[in-house]
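Quick question, first post here. What does this chain look like in 3D?
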Amino acid sequence: MSIIAEKQKNQKQVLTVNDLEKRKVVEHNSLITSIAKMQKTALKMFELAVSCIDTENPPKDNIIYLSKKELFAFFDVSSASKHTRFKEAIELMQKQAFFQIKEVKDKGYEMTSIVPIPTVKWNSYNDDVMIQFNQFIMPYLIDLKAEFTQYKISELKELNSKYSIILYRWLSMNYNQYEHYSYKGGRREEQVEAYRNPLITVKELREITDTVSLYQTFKDFDSYVLKNSLKEINAYTSFNVTYEKVKKGRSIDSIVFQIEKKRQADDNSYKIEDQAYIEGKKAKEETEKDLFTEAMQSRYTTLLL
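> Answer (accepted):
Ran it through. Tokens below.
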């Protein structure tokens, strides 16, 4: 099984299953916080295609190639009707799916609606699926100098809810910034911690999950969007996430998430936290040492007098 990515005309690079496990999705934060007007299958297909983009060497004509076998494996499709289901998923993605991106511009904001994948081509006699990205989505996927988020595509494989995928992407955006500023500096301690414990209003959360007109009571929203999503995220991704409800008056106004990263054999993120702990402990010891020295000097001066 393989994923095939075209880097140059008439030249394709075959990638193994192990490569899939290492591949990352890289997207601008504006795309992460956009409204995904699509179902989970279309969203996962888009994310899988994005993971094939080499940001240092963008695909010619915005085209990448997937393998049908790898595509079916990613979606865990093994039934006799898999080709029909694939065809239906492609049609839904092209007829109904789009991103609604909101960006601050000049004195206000700008709204852009983009059908991300307008062209998909495949045949019955080989394994290739050609996917061509919309030219207007590409700036959010390549040449990313700042304000971007990356995560492993394998993290999304077992997520079976659109809300789980959207929330995972948003949590990843915040945790990426926590890791960045923990290592690089440039933010106050409380600002860095705010990335690991991000707050979002219920109104904003309803917008990015496209549930403004769904689950009208907070009880339903809490159950179907928050609890179910975090159950999947905690079970199948590298995050352990909890949350608290923040009231304004008698209503739930905001949600504060607490994000913890699971320690894995190939994950060095724990070193960031351990290093911060070591440096904090060292600073504390230095302060206590200075205070002790000052106290001893003061006592010595008093004895001389």
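Residues 160-272 form a domain with the Arc Repressor Mutant, subunit A fold (CATH 1.10.10.10).
The longest strand covers residues 251-261.
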